[in-house]
Write a structure and sequence with these properties.
Blueprint: H1 17-27, E1 35-40, E2 45-52, H2 69-77, E3 86-90, E4 93-98, E5 101-104
Antiparallel strand pairs: 1-2, 3-4, 4-5
Length: 105
């Protein structure tokens, strides 16, 4: 994504997260095309960056057919040590990826 302007970071992941994403897209519409990075400590998660590409290491997982590269990248990245979970919001659906499993929410 073009990095200028760069949306703010540090927002808490809570009930206002939808508005946080809308504000980031208003600041830079390219935000919608990439991964939002969130750091989690013992009490909360906070946005640490916008619109990252995922480059997971090779894995033995065989993804389901016809889900696309974003789905496949999230599935593989969910196996990386230290990754808690990934969420994919696309075309009216939401998927959660955790430890190599994908659940449609």
């Amino acid at each position: 994504m073009p990095r200028d302007p760069q949306p703010e970071v540090g927002q808490t992941i809570d009930g206002s997260f939808g508005q946080v994403v809308r504000s980031a897209i208003e600041a830079n519409e390219a935000v919608h095309d990439g991964c939002i990075m969130v750091a989690v400590d013992e009490t909360e998660g906070r946005v640490t960056g916008w619109s990252y590409r995922l480059f997971p290491p090779p894995t033995e997982i065989t993804p389901p057919p016809n889900k696309g590269s974003a789905f496949n990248s999230c599935l593989a990245m969910s196996l990386v040590p230290g990754v808690f979970a990934l969420y994919l919001v696309s075309k009216g659906s939401v998927w959660r990826f955790k430890r190599g499993l994908a659940d449609q929410l």
